[in-house]
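Methods, example record. To illustrate the input and output format used throughout this study, we show the complete record for Prealbumin-like fold domain-containing protein. The sequence lines were provided to the predictor; the line carrying structure tokens was produced by it.
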Amino acid sequence: MKKLYYVFIFLLVIVAIVFRYPPAFFITDLVNDNKKEILLQVDDKISAKKQSDLNVEIIDIHSGLSIYDAKYQPKITTVVQPNHIYQVLITDSKYSMTQEEPIFIKWDNDNHLYEMGASNFWKKNTTGCINIPLLLHKSGQLDSLPQIDLINTSGNQLQANFHIFDSSNHVIATYATNKRPQFDLNRLIANVEYKVRFSNISDNYNKPLDMLIKKTNDQQLIVKQNRHWSLLASRWTIMLPQKQSSAFKYRLTSLASSTNETLPTPQVINGGDIAPMNRLRIVDKIQGANIEILKEGPAVIATKRINQVNTTSGYKDSDTKFGRMPSTLYSSFHLEGDQVTNGQSEFSEIAVQFKGSEVFKDSDVDKILADANAGWDSSDLNLDTTNMWIKVKYSNAAYYDGELVDAVALIKITPFKNRTFDPNNSNYQYIATPNYTLSNPMNNWAKTQQPFYPTIQLSQLLYRGWVWQNVKEFQVDLQFYQKSGTLINFKNATMSSKKATYYTINSLNPEGKDVEEYNKFTRSPVHGPEFVYPYDISNAYKIVNSNIQTSYNGGTYAGTQHGYNGGSAPWGGDDDVLGSPTFSKNSVTMTTSDTSHIKMTLGNMLKDALGANEKDQGQDVMRTNYMWASISTDAFTNNIVHYIDIPVQKKWVGTIPDLPKGIPVQIIGQWLQDGKLMQEVEQEQYLTKENNWQVVFKQLPTEKDMIQILKKQASGATITDFKYSVKEITDGIDVLKDYDIQYAGDSSKFVITNTAKKTSLTVKKLWKENNVLIENNYLTQNFLPVTVHLKRKIQNTLDSNFDRLIQLTYNEDSTKSWQAKVADLPINDSNNQAYIYFIEEDTKGIEPFYLKDYVKNNITLSFNEDENKIEVINEKQTAKINIIKKWFDLYGKEIDNQDLPKIVEVDIYRTKDGSTTNGEFVQTVSINRQGDAAPFTWQTTEPIEVITKYANDGYYTYYLKEKSISGYLEISSDSEKQLTFNNQTPGEITFTLKNKVNPVYPQTGGKGVLGLIVIGVIILGVANIYRKLTTNLEEK
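The corresponding predicted structure is encoded as:
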């Protein structure tokens, strides 16, 4: 009993160790050494509900591809490679738990398991249990980015930098690895994806793919390192393998096809049942479409862009041996309507060639010809581990809800043997597919031992699809992105929905009527894919009397394979014509689930060799030179939805407002359902200055087909009068309140007219002198500013509340000088009566100019600003005055001697009433004697400029006043020294001033006169004495 007790205690200790950290992976070997059965046990503290949120992903760090990715389940099985390192990721869709430390695992050649955790040391695992600690989520756990550690496969740290890119692909931060970055998470916008990209990595190591990070609403940081989002712990470790040398090869046995799981039977769609509106539309000849390579798998040996049109010369290349494209395939990638310039098509494709099969020695020729898997790296025979992959970006790939979007495709293939090179052909032409016979299964041409090179060709137009040769499985994983970089997530829908995302693969024809017959080669050189195996779909569909099967029996050795295919029923010829009633018999349509992927595997169905009783007597199957596949977003022939594009144009009447973000405009579907008006927004775009106020709403169902779609949704209801309409969304755009909106047109083209309720008016000042416009702006620089009153009225009733002062001033820029623009003027009043606008100039201070006229005053404003202009004209009228002086003696004879005054001063006066008194003094001028000797002349030295007019009908009267001269008498007539101007007055006039010498009488009495003077003086003296004496006596 005591021994049993110790045994029991020992077992408890082992159990405690095994279940110390949840979840735990138990690995046990199967019969196949390369398959591992992984048992996953979760601690009983983690509820069943939380277990259902967990996802297990195992990533091969050498290829970056997942070898296992599925929801948690107790037991999983996957294929692993000796000495390959795998990262185990546990993700939680609810973000309630996070993986505490990275876990890397590997098996050596002796199937010993090793693991590496936070210690960065490989430890041999002798228990068979891999412990992965999980931590419960804590809100506010991170306040900065985690430390990112790069390590090599030995656990040693690698130095590098990493950059964070925002959605506009701008770097917002750069840090070094292996250090905790000081990055404030508040800089990240919640629910916006940011890209992490590494640089400055040693050339000896593979550069990791870009990763995505995102901040959640509760301030947690999540990362998408491979396929799933997961919470970030305080440290983030990435292991980088060294680049593989050419000597490195996988050593695996043949792997099973990835399409080894049964597919559900497609649902039957009746003819005439219209399909839903497809939210994803992949169409031909999208402007700006292009393709570029993002990343190449290790097995890519060459790429080449091709756009030559001459198919007779083929796509030959002496180094990479791309071979030729037959003319029957040429029409798939290039259409008659394609533009060709100098032998080059407007559309090109990228050819990608992968590593060829190894050349065996003579003794092994039969093996390489008879065994489809011989000559290839075994890892390349499985889509999960193949190195034959390439990642490309399709720019302008499709429309999603009418919006132009891009796509990224990860394309993976497994190799096959269809044809090889003719070594005797200098053009490196491919040898045609051999004729199989019982006596010579591969013919002598194959004994040349030339490699088989898997080659694919990808059109720059996603619509035109893909071509491949020497390929068994062609897997494409498409993800679509908005132009902002946001990943598009498709919604779960079915063919019964009004809207869905769905795609169709046509021409699924593993045999058809071109059946391979004994001793005959009857296969066409080009045909479509033989099967499709979709992922992430909600359902699959086929038509009535469809040939589509879910599996294919290839014979004794090839066995049963799974995938939607056309089976063995005859199909081809007239069937294989797009639009034919029977075209869709070999087609299958898939609707997506809630996913961001459109992923499918296409390719060959394996079939036993003709006449082969044993597997080594022939190749698996005789196949065509080329296979071509495309992805269609149309439904079956009899269920197809027809689509139209609807252009919308905006016209502005009046001022175009400044709208940096443009105006949202919607296409709305309207219909009557049992007489009740119904409507739904179908698409929305922005009209902007940059797109010239024009957009095109893309890929909308025709109005006729929309009625059928709606009838399917509202069973039993009467649906009539469906039509598209357009609506401008003005909410939040205050400036549009000043515009009236009118809609016109139909689904062929809509026109939206925005008519301004307000406009602007330009008031301009014109300066004139003597009826001539002063055009030289510089001459007006010293003029004083002018004030104008802008007023308005309705008919003859003045708006007393409106009087806007406008100041017109000089500006060095002649286009701005003496003018002003008055904005936001209502055209009509609240009763829709037109305002009449007019101006009144304040004439104070404008002298010597006067208000001459208004041009277009009393204007009714137009929506066209260029027509709204009022001008005011100020004019200055001038004349020149000359003044001459003439002298006369007592006898009226003109004299001009040197005794006359040299200078005479004259005052100039003016009046407005025509009088010649009490006038306004103008100036004093001097009349100077001219000449050096008699005869002399007297005149002003230069003409004197005077203002002749003070109003439209007002002229000045000018008159002269000579300052008095002793001894001379002014004898000018009125007409000679005064003038009232009028419109007939010449521009230069002369005033004449005349002076006569005063008379001087001579002495006539001689000395007798002196006596009289003396007597007079005496009499005056006596009289004065007498007056004084008389005065004194009176006083006494």
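Annotations derived from this record:
The longest strand covers residues 403-415.
The longest helix spans residues 1008-1035.
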